[in-house]
Structures are given as C-alpha cells and as structure tokens.
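Lay summary. Proteins are chains of building blocks that fold into shapes, and those shapes determine what they do. In this project we predict the shape from the chain. Here is one chain we studied, written as its sequence of building blocks.
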Amino acid sequence: MLSIIGLLTIFIIVALLISGRITPIVGLVIVPIFGAFFAGFNFKEIGEFFNSGIESVISVVIMFIFAILFFGVMQDAGVFNPLINTMIKISRGNVVAVAMSTVVIAAIAQLDGSGASTFLITIPALLPLYKRLKMNPYLLLLLVGISASIVNMVPWGGPLGRAAAVLGVDVTELWRPLIKIQIVGILLLITFAFILGLREKRIIAKKVASGAFDDDVDEIEEVEQKVDSDGSLLLRPKMLWINVIIAVSVVGLLVWGKVPTGFIFMVGFSVALPLNYRSVNEQMDRIKAHAPNALLMAAIILAAGSFLGILNGANMLDSIATDLVKVLPALIVPYLHIIIGLFGVPFDLLLSTDAYYFALLPIVEQVVSGFGVPSVSIAYALIVGNIIGTFVSPFSPALWLALGLAGLEMGKHIRYSFLIMWGFSIVLFLITMAMGVITF
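And here is the predicted shape, written in a compact code that computers can read:
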C-alpha cells in the first residue's frame, strides 16, 4: 500500500509539472501531504517529516541564494566581457572559428549558473555575426545549449543542487569529481564545434554556388556586447582585476573544499557588492535585480526538502524500491542508473528538471544502492546522462527565452539539435564511466 501511495504521489507531481498547471513549489509541497494522510500519518508526524527534510537542504538553499547574487554582480560589473569580446573579435569572418568561439563564450557566460543570462549575453552578441556569415542560427542555439549545459554542473547550477538535496550530501563534494568531466566536455565540444563548423562552411558554399544567396561574407562589422538594459552604467572596467581576483578566490575556495560553500558565497558577495557599487541605492538595485532568480531556486529546493522529507519519513521510497526490485528483471536492476543515464536526453522531452531529479532520482537511488552502488555514482549517471538535454527540452523556460531572442521555433530546434545532443551526451557518459566517476 505504501508503494502504491508513493507512486501515485510521484505520478501526480510529475503529471502536474508536465501539464504546467501548477508551479513546482505548490506540487512538491501539497501533493505529498495528501499522500501522507492517505498512508495514515497525522499532522504531527508529517510536521516531523517536514522538519527533517528542510534540515537536509538548508545548506544548499543558502548556497544558491548567495551564489546567484555573487555571480550576478560579477556579470553586471563586466568581469567576463573582455574575454567574450576578444573571442568575438578573433573569430570574425571565419565560420569554423565562430563555431568554436561560441562554445567558449557560452561557457564563460554560464558561470553564473543562469541559463537565461547566458542566452541574454550570447544570442544578441553572436546572432548578427551568424546572420552576416549566413550560418544557421540553430547551430548557434545548439552550441550555446550544450556548452551551457556542461558548465551547469557547477554547484550553483540547478541540477547539482537538486541532486544534493535528494541525496542529503554537500553540493561541493558532489561537484568536485565532475570538474574533470566538465573540462573534458568543453574540450570535446570545441572539437565537435570544429567539425560542425566545417560542415556549416560546406553547406554555405553549396548554397552560394547554387545561388541561394550572394557570397557577401567578407568584412564583419564590430559586434557590441550588451550586458543588459542598463548597458555601460553597470560596468566597472576600473575594477576588472580586483573583481577577477575575487572571482578566482571564490572558485579556488570552492575547489579546496575546507570552507562551507554558502559561507564562501556570502562573504564573496558581501565584498564584491560594495566594492563595485558604492551607494546603498545601487547595491539594493543589484540585489533586487538578481533576487527573483535566487529566491525562486531557494523556494524550489525548500519545497523539494519537504517532499523528500515526507516520502522518506513515511518510508514510501523504501517501499517503492523494495517492490520495484521484485518486479523488474533481476539482470536489469543493478544497472538501472546506467540505462536511465543513457536515455537521459529523451527523458528531458518527457520530464521537467524538477520531476527528473525530485521524482525519478530518489527511486533509482533507493533501488540501485541496495546492490552496493554508491549513491553519488547513481547521481552522476543521471546528471551526466541528462544535463546535455537541458536546452532541448520544452520544459526549460530559458530555452523559450533563447528562441524568442533568436526568432526561432521550438519544433525546428528539437529536430535540428535533439539527435546531436543525445549523441554527444552518450559519448560524454561513456567517457565519465571510463574515468571511473560512474560505477556499477
């Protein structure tokens, strides 16, 4: 009975998330409460489950709030602009170089962990260049999407925070083994962009030869980078090196792992904000600008803590795992995380990020960990297998923003990018297994 109630609870949450009828916060909070009532638990017991769940995610919540505020200030001040503008200038007029530079520019832009800001930075900067060179704008979206997805394995990105909340582990500890995967992934993507750039060059040449459009690809006008609607008013070029030192110090402390993640970002933000924006009004404006993203992510993680606390406290997940082992073929169960990881990108077309990590991951972890597979390895399989598909999913709000900015269509983007993203994801997944990060 617990298994049935637990599965119904998860199914209803997933269905509601897919339908878009309610926000993740409402679904993750309300539905498990009704499930617990039907399972025979009272208000007091459910309250205890809630407290346990919130305690397991509070450190992740603190980290998210201040990480998003910190990197938001870094972006506002223009810390990454010189490198981005240099990459644009270097790649001018060369189709292959533009494709490869797109990967680097998107990776830099994604350092704040926000897909929306990445698209707001990269598409206005690079789309005129792609159009002038007659390059396919869907290639721009593909390369930016994959690059941003790889970088989004950082602790302040959504997927790792969700996975850490589910497992009840420190998000920085979860991230550290993935650093080498991110490096390999970006290098692999640059190589892949070189190949796609050559293909694009041949396509353009054929179209020019057939008279589809004139061969006017010569001098490329300077493409100006715009950070946001405030333009140069937010930039702090005189503070560039101080900001770089602050950013490098924060990342270095994260890698070192001896200081709590939330504390690092809290201090980093408290130092960077008054250094760049002296008046209280300017500081409050920067906080207000980035607070919505920070608070939304924090609220979702807290709601997930409540959801997981209730399902764990009521022993629903344990019951589902036990019964699932009885139903599935014995040969498949120990490798369930590998199978789901390999099909992670298609899952992005069926499940939202919240549904994938808060509904699917807990069940897989409960089932496979019973066979001696470490919980973190199970999480890595689902993260690496799924994360590349983030920006080919219709459940990604940032992707809709990107499509709007570029004037593109979701259906055409999925047709152009889906198989390429899935293939890249499988290759990166196999590399991750070969490097021993994913085990079975």
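What the prediction tells us: The chain is about 75% helix and 0% strand.
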